[in-house]
Each structure stands twice: as structure tokens, then as C-alpha cells.
């Protein structure tokens, strides 16, 4: 199921009041699902804000690339720590969320997110980089809990056979958040709240207090909403999910994918600002991040079409082209937003300047066609494309390097969903435990950016783009291995 980022709990976790176990789903309601999709948007938004935050803090505290990479280390390190604690708790006393209930867990997670954002103001006042890292860790703790709870909840809200469609839609909102965040963050930090045109730490206070207020408002909204009651009072133990090779290899693939995607996004602003690439000012470069994260939105939604069951498969190419054109237009629009002389304005780039990106969108659609909608094959083909793009970015200059690096977002798009579903295939009763182990591997986003930052300090920011190439070589192998495993499985069926 493309776009699936977690799995519904087992059938004994449903609340009897729903009239259906969790595995059978609960009655679909547009209101509750709309609230859940907003959660996906917000955690995508706040996560990608780190890509704008890194160059901001690097300049403010005069950090090396390695030291600036500690932003992602603190943020994604929380995913590992919190997921590990959750995993150990589920082994010893059953699934905590099933005891607390999904709705209450989501409210708690949102309050924690708000607290993490609110701490940015005193961190700026104290002029303390470690304080910022602590605030990021707390913020990421809330995001981790939110992901653990919201993903399966979205899957359960409706008929099981439509779970993939619901999750892909929710993932689309997540990608919308990651697309808008660089634009909003760049405007707020470098223009709206800059002091006399100069970037200072005070510029960070108001934006993150606004984010804190939005998380609190969302917590109140979720708390007061009449969401279907799932979980609360029942729990299940764990099993031996690590006995499955597809999971073990998939854990490594998730680690490397998340690490590579986060590392690329973390240093794109510095890459685009380098004189041998484009020499952009950081505020301008942050706006171009929308092409990287927006590419994930294009690929994810087109992938949902390509890999879905359809009564009329002949129209899939048309739907994919229309989706890609519409979303490319949206990205083109949001990147034109400027803040000039106290007012918002639109400054569109000449279409010829973004033509290379449109070519890459076309190549992404062609890659889906070559893969014929098979998740393992798509994974392998997209990984090979990423290796090629990163090599071009590392050895080229100017616009070729720029668009090769930004185009990586298009081919990163389906990585999470395809690796996740391939890894949990055939886990049966061990699926939930396997899912928690995969979420734990998000810690790659904490470690690989540090390796890339260290390489940038030693050899330069362009050469550092060789580092994530190794990740995609392994993921290409995992796609090939999974294709072989599934072929054997089908022959035996």
C-alpha cells in the first residue's frame, strides 16, 4: 500500500463502542479525518523548519557545518530515544497508546510540541545554542509521539481496503507542510522579523511562539472533537519481529533513507549559497527549498496514483500528468512570494529558469512508467536516479548543480512508504512491533547529517554531496532484494 507509514493495531485493540475492532476500521467521517490530516501538515511543517533554522543558527553562533548539524542530531535523536522507550514499554507492559487512547495521546503530543516551540524564546534570550538543542529535542519528542499515534489512527478511520488512499491523502498534506515551511520560515526569519535588515537571534522568538500557539490551538481542537474512540484500556505484547530478514534489511534502508533525505535538505541552503553554485543569499536560497520538498509532494501523490488499484488503469498516466502539472504550478507560485518594503509581493522567475526542474518531473513520471507500479522496482529505479543526481550535483556548478540537488526531492518521495510496506510484509502478528522498530530508525536523520557536515568542513559543501550516495546504493540493493523475495513468494503461492 503506497504511502503507508504505519499499520493499524491488531483487532483486539478496538473499543467496543465503535462496533468494530481496529483491524476492521471504524465508520469513516470526514470531520475526524480532516483533523488528522491537519496533524500531518503541522509535523511536516515544523520538521522542515530545521532546514531554515540550521543556516540561521550557524550564522548567529558562528558554527562549523558539523556543529550546525547538531540541530538534526537533537531533533531526530529524539525519535530514536522516544521510540526505544516506547518499544521497551510495549514489550514489558503492552502498547502504551492502547491504554491511554489515541485521542488523548495526540493531545498530549501536541502540548509537548507547543512547549518545545515556546522554549525557543528563552533560548534566544539566553543566547545559548545548547538551550536551542534542548528545545528541539522536546519538540521532536512531541512529533515522535504524534507520528506513532496519528499514522495508525488515520488508517483505522474507515474501511481497511481504503486505508492506503486515506494515508496517501494525509501524506500529501504532510508534503504540503514541508513545501510551505521553507518559504514561511525564510520570510519570517530573514525578512519580517529581521532587525533593521540584520539577522539576529531575536528574530526567532516570535515565529516559534506563533508555532507554539498553533499547536496549543490544535490540541484544544482535537481534545474537544468527537473522534471515534479507539484504544484505551487494552494492550498487546510484542514478539520476535527481528526474525524476519525483510524487516532487518528494511530497518537499515529506513535509517539510510531518512538520514540522506534530511542531510541533503539540511545543507541545501549552504550548497545553493556557495559561490561555485549560485551564490544566493540565505534568505533567497531558503525559498528554493520548496522545490526539494515540493518534489516529494509531487512524487508521493503521483506514486499514489501509479501504485493504486484502479477500475480504469488506462487513465493513470493522464491523472499523474495533471497532478504533476498542478503541483509544479503551486510550487512555482509559492516560490514567487516576497516580502518587500513591509508588503507581500509576487516575483516570478522566468519559466526558462525552472525548465530543468520540469524536465526532472517528466523523468520522475517516466520512472514510474518503467517500474509499472511495483513498489520494489520503483524503489530500486528511484534510488539509481538519486545516485545519478547527487553525483551530478557534487561535480557540477551553477544551474546544473542547483537543479540536480533540488531534483533529489522528486525521487525521495516514495522511499518511506515503499521501504516501510516492503519491510512489514508478511510480519503478521509481529507487524506492530516491526513498525516501532522502523520508526526507531528515523535516528538516521540525526547521524548522517553530522557525517555530511563533517565532510563539508573537510572537503567543501559540494564534495559533501557524495556522502548520501552510499545510502541510495544500499536502498537500490534493498529494492532489488525485495523484488526477488516477492517474486519467490508469488511463485510459491
UniProtKB/TrEMBL annotation:
Keywords: Cell membrane, Membrane, Transmembrane, Transmembrane helix. It is a multi-pass membrane protein. The keyword Transmembrane applies. GO terms for cellular component: plasma membrane. Gene3D superfamilies: MFS general substrate transporter like domains. It comes from the Bacteria. The gene is fucP_1. The chain crosses the membrane at residues 26-46, 66-89, 101-121, 127-146, 167-188, 208-228, 249-269, 318-339, 351-370, 377-395, 401-424, 436-455, 461-481. This is L-fucose-proton symporter. It is found in: Cell inner membrane. The keyword Glycosyltransferase does not apply. Coiled coil: none annotated. GO terms for molecular function: transmembrane transporter activity.
Amino acid at each position: 500500500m503506497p504511502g503507508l507509514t504505519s499499520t493499524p493495531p491488531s483487532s483486539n485493540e478496538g473499543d467496543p463502542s465503535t462496533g468494530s475492532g481496529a483491524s476492521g476500521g471504524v465508520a469513516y467521517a470526514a470531520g475526524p479525518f480532516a483533523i488528522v490530516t491537519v496533524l500531518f501538515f503541522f509535523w511536516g511543517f515544523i520538521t522542515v523548519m530545521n532546514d531554515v533554522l540550521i543556516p540561521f543558527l550557524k550564522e548567529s553562533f558562528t558554527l562549523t557545518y558539523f556543529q550546525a548539524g547538531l540541530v538534526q542530531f537533537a531533533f531526530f535523536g529524539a525519535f530514536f530515544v522516544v521510540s526505544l522507550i516506547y518499544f521497551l514499554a510495549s514489550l514489558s507492559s503492552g502498547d502504551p497508546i492502547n491504554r491511554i487512547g489515541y485521542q488523548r495521546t495526540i493531545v498530549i503530543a501536541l502540548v509537548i510540541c507547543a512547549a518545545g516551540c515556546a522554549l525557543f524564546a528563552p533560548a534566544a534570550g539566553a543566547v545559548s545554542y545548547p538551550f536551542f538543542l534542548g528545545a528541539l529535542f522536546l519538540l521532536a519528542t512531541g512529533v515522535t509521539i504524534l507520528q506513532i499515534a496519528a499514522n495508525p489512527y488515520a488508517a483505522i478511520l474507515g474501511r481497511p481496503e481504503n486505508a492506503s488512499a486515506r494515508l496517501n491523502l494525509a501524506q500529501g498534506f504532510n508534503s504540503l507542510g514541508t513545501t510551505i515551511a521553507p518559504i514561511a520560515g525564510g520570510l519570517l526569519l530573514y525578512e519580517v522579523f529581521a532587525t533593521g535588515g540584520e539577522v539576529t537571534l531575536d528574530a526567532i522568538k516570535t515565529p516559534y511562539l506563533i508555532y507554539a500557539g498553533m499547536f496549543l490551538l490544535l490540541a484544544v481542537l482535537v481534545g474537544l472533537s468527537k473522534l471515534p474512540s479507539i484504544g484505551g484500556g487494552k494492550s498487546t505484547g510484542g514478539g520476535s519481529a527481528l526474525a524476519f530478514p525483510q524487516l532487518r534489511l528494511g530497518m537499515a534502508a529506513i535509517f539510510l533513507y531518512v538520514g540522506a533525505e534530511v542531510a541533503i535538505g539540511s545543507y541545501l541552503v549552504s550548497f545553493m549559497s556557495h559561490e561555485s553554485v549560485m551564490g544566493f543569499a540565505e534568505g533567497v536560497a531558503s525559498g528554493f527549498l520548496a522545490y526539494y520538498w515540493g518534489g516529494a509532494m509531487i512524487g508521493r501523490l503521483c506514486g499514489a496514483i501509479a501504485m493504486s488499484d484502479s477500475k480504469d488503469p488506462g487513465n493513470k498516466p493522464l491523472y499523474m500528468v495533471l497532478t504533476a502539472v498542478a503541483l509544479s504550478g503551486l510550487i512555482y507560485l509559492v516560490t514567487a512570494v516576497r516580502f518587500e518594503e513591509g508588503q507581500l509581493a509576487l516575483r516570478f522567475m522566468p519559466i526558462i529558469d525552472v525548465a530543468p526542474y520540469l524536465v526532472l518531473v517528466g523523468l520522475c513520471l517516466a520512472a514510474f512508467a518503467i517500474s509499472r507500479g511495483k513498489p520494489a522496482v520503483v524503489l530500486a529505479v528511484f534510488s539509481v536516479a538519486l545516485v545519478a543526481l547527487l553525483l551530478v550535483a557534487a561535480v557540477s556548478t551553477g544551474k546544473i548543480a542547483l537543479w540536480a540537488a533540488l531534483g533529489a526531492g522528486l525521487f525521495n518521495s516514495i522511499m518511506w512508504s515503499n521501504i516501510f510496506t516492503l519491510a512489514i510484509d508478511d510480519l503478521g502478528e509481529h507487524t506492530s512491533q516491526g513498525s516501532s522498530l522502523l520508526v526507531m530508525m528515523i535516528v538516521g536523520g540525526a547521524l548522517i547529517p553530522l557525517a555530511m557536515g563533517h565532510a563539508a568542513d573537510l572537503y567543501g559543501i559540494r564534495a559533501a554531496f557524495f556522502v548520501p550516495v552510499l545510502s541510495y546504493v544500499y536502498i537500490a540493493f534493498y529494492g532489488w532484494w525485495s523484488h526477488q523475495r516477492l517474486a519467490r513468494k508469488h511463485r510459491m503461492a
